[in-house]
Amino acid sequence: MSEQATDVTSSPVLRFGTELRRLRRQRGWSQDELARRMGYSNTLISYLERGQRSPTKYFAVKADEVFDTGQAFYGLWRRIDRASLLEGVEEFTDAEGRCRRLRTFEISLIPGLFQTPEYAEALAMAAVRRGSITKVQAEEAVAFLAVRQKRVLNRADPPRIHAVVDEGCINRLIGGPKVMARQLDHVIELADRPNITVQVAPLSLGELAPFTFPIVLLTLPDRSVVGYGETHARGYLERGRVMCANWERDYDQLVVESLSTVASLDVIHTVRKGLE
């Protein structure tokens, strides 16, 4: 495929590779010569120029040094690093990592913080097959989720977490029976932690369910509350006091209408047994 035929705007990885090739040729260097100057193999240079491999942060910094391009390659790497994230997600995850209390409601999938790597990968690769993201972006999204989980679930002072999941989240088969079985086992294990509460909102709740989209409520160290909502196109952090108060009121009602924690775990166990 020629450089003219390659749509470099559609992929930050391709754009990085195209710029690497352009500057190399501009200086009259072969791939072997660039590899020598960079301290990497010519095979890696070839993969990167064709967009078949995602560059590392260290490669980008070294490229800026070799080509004397300031932080141009580092900037391109940053775009690759964040390409798989929805708009608004970085701001949300920063608040999430600092929160003292986290309340979440999910309508179709297991909440991200509770997802196993296999479950998250199945979702990401489905997006690759649809053409929504690249394989590299899928890998980055799964890796980013693992960082979020570690920062929230495994920190020294983890927040109190209350998760209400729609019954469809439990019954929707993601990744096949084995992956889904391990996922439900993981939810059960997390629910046994003293700081985590899990409830199931039954399908029979129908129109009484107050939310038609996933939401998260974060109580920050200064006791302020922010909300987070998400669509397929973007995520957004809600800071308005009135809106957050409305979400809190609706969430409290959702908790009352949902199954008790004991009944919720019974439902999860029942679905889990059906996967054996």
Q: Widest sheet: strand order?
A: 3-2-1-4-5-6
Major sheet details:
6 strands, mixed
Mean pLDDT: 88
Structural class: alpha/beta
- Any idea what the radius of gyration is? 22 Å
N-to-C order of helices and strands: HHHHHHEHHEHHEEEEHH
Q: State the shape.
A: elongated
Total helices: the number is: 12
Low-pLDDT residue spans: 1-10
Amino- and carboxy-terminal Cα gap:
48 Å
Percentage of β-strand residues? 5-15%
What share of the residues lie within helices? 40-55%
* Tally of strands: 6
Secondary-structure topology with pairs:
Elements: H1 12-26, H2 31-38, H3 42-49, H4 57-67, H5 72-82, H6 89-98, E1 101-106, H7 117-130, H8 135-153, E2 160-166, H9 167-171, H10 177-191, E3 196-201, E4 215-219, E5 225-230, E6 235-238, H11 241-257, H12 261-273
Parallel strand pairs: 1-2, 2-3
Antiparallel strand pairs: 1-4, 4-5, 5-6
Helix pairs in contact: 1-5, 2-3, 4-5, 7-8, 10-12
Give an overview in words:
The chain starts with 11 loop residues before the first helix and ends with a helix. A hairpin with a 5-residue loop joins β4 and β5 (225-230). The protein has twelve helices and six strands. The model is unreliable at 1-10 (pLDDT under 50). The radius of gyration is 22 Å and the shape is elongated. The longest helix is centred in the middle third of the chain and has 19 residues, at 135-153. The protein is an alpha/beta fold and 276 residues long. A six-stranded mixed beta sheet has the order 3-2-1-4-5-6, sandwiched between helices. Helices cover 53% and strands 12% of the residues.
